[in-house]
Predict the structure.
Amino acid sequence: MAETIFLKIIRGEIPAKVVHEDDLCMAFHDIAPKAPVHVLVIPKKPIESVNDIDEDDIPILGHIWATIPKIAQQLGIAQSGYRVVVNCGADGGQEVAHLHFHLLGGRKLTWPPG
Ligand code: AMP
């Protein structure tokens, strides 16, 4: 898999505003937030996209989904609500080829997305 900016963040080679880190995942504020709260939750394992998720990755993904509500609680948006978005590929709007979950909240989000 190609080197990505997220791998550099995981290795601490470029700075990020980290809100959570453990053995399996990391969460940090998006550099160009689309909502008052916009955090990216990423597996430390370099999975390229949703298309590249393997059965072996289920524990990682389960852990990420169990961690997201804790981060939402930590950031004060658990009660008001939030959206979790995963872009995949060109039509999905994926720019960084390292699987990531956008956690968006802090305002009323519109639907459907563009
Ligand atoms: P996507 O378009 O789904 O691939 O989302 C990639 C996200 O990564 C975008 O929302 C970018 O603003 C964000 N991003 C890119 N570089 C950085 C960085 N160095 N630190 C934090 N977020 C970043």
